[in-house]
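Q: what does this look like with S-adenosyl-L-homocysteine bound?
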Amino acid sequence: MKRVNFYDFTINKLQELLLDNNFKKFNANQIFKWVYEKKITDPLHMTNLSKSLKSFIADFFEFADLEVVTRQVSSDSTEKFLFKLIDDHVIETVLMKYDYGYSLCVTSQVGCSMGCTFCASGLINKQRNLSIYELVSQVVTVQNITNEKISNVVVMGTGEPFDNYDNVMDFIRVINYKHGLQIGSRHITVSTCGIIPKIYDYAKEDIKSNLAISLHAPNDEIRSKIMKINKKYPIDELINACKDYTAISGRRITFEYILLKGINDETKYANQLSDLIRGINAYVNLIPYNPVNEFGYAKTDPKRAQKFYKQLEKRGINCTLRRELGRDIDAACGQLRLKNN
Ligand code: SAH
C-alpha cells in the first residue's frame, strides 16, 4: 500500500481515520503531540501508543520533509528555500527574521493565474494547487533545517491562497492547533488579490487569522490596468466586502499598497485612498516596489513614498512603510519565481 503524508491530516481527519480503523479518538492528540511537539516521527518511539497503533502508523503514514534544492541567505539574513515537490515542480518559501520572532512566507500554488502585471510570480501560470501537506511541510521543513521555531506565518508567497481555499484553511487548522504547530491565529496572515466570495467565507471561519488585501490602487481605472482580478471584482464591491469582513469577524484588515512610480504614487491618490477606506477598521501597508526585469515598472523614490505616507497619516489613516527584506536574493515580495541562481 502506498503510504500517505501525515502532514495532510487535520486533527479531525486523523480522528476519523483512527476511529474507522478501530482506534480511539484521543489517540489522534497523542500522535499530534509526538509529531508536532516532540518532533518524533518514528512510531517505535511513540512510547504511549499500543503496539497495533504503532504498526498502523508505520504502515499508513510517511513523514517526509520537502526536498531542499537550494537555500540562499540574504545580507539582511532573510533566507529563501527552493523546494522540489514529488512531481518535480519547485516552489519557494522565504524566512524572515525579526526581533519579535521568525516569520515564514508560504507559497500556496505552483505558479499563479491572477495576472497582476507587476508580480514575478505570475510569469508562470498556475500549474496546480499545493496540497495540505505541501503547505504544512514548508513550515515543518524550515523548522527542521534551521532548528528555529516559526512564530508567524504569512501566506504571501507564490499563488493566490483564496484560489486554493480549502487546503489553505486546513493548513491553518494544522499550524494553529494546540497540539499542532501552535502558531496563534493572530500570527497568521492570508493575503488575497481580492476574490470576494472567499472573503465572506474567510470572515466566518472559526479560526480568526488575519486578512490582507492587495489593493494597490485607489480607483477602478488604475486597479483594472494593473490587476486583472479587478475586472471581475471591482473596487467598490471589494471595499464593501472588506467592511463586511471587519463587521463579521471583528478583526482589523490590512490593505497592501505597492508604490509604483508614476502610476499610483501621487498625493491625489493618497487622498482617494483615504476617502475609499475611511471608517474601516484597517491599516495600510505601503510596500516599496521590488523591480522585476520583465516589467516596465519602477519604484517610487523614498522621498515621494514618505510624502504619500505622511498624506495618509494626515488624513487619519493608520499606515506603515514596509521594510524591504531579501532583495539581493530575489526573495522580496513579488520577486518569487522559479529561479535558483
Ligand atoms: N495572491 C496573493 C498572495 C501574494 S502576496 C495576493 O495578491 O495578495 C504577495 C504580495 O506582494 C501582494 O500584496 C503582491 O501584490 C505584492 N507584490 C507583488 N509583486 C510585487 C513587487 N514586485 N514588489 C512588491 N510587492 C509585490
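The radius of gyration is 21 Å. Residues 114, 116, 118-119, 156, 160, 191-193, 214, 256, 258, 287, 289-290, 292, 333-334 surround S-adenosyl-L-homocysteine (CB under 6 Å).
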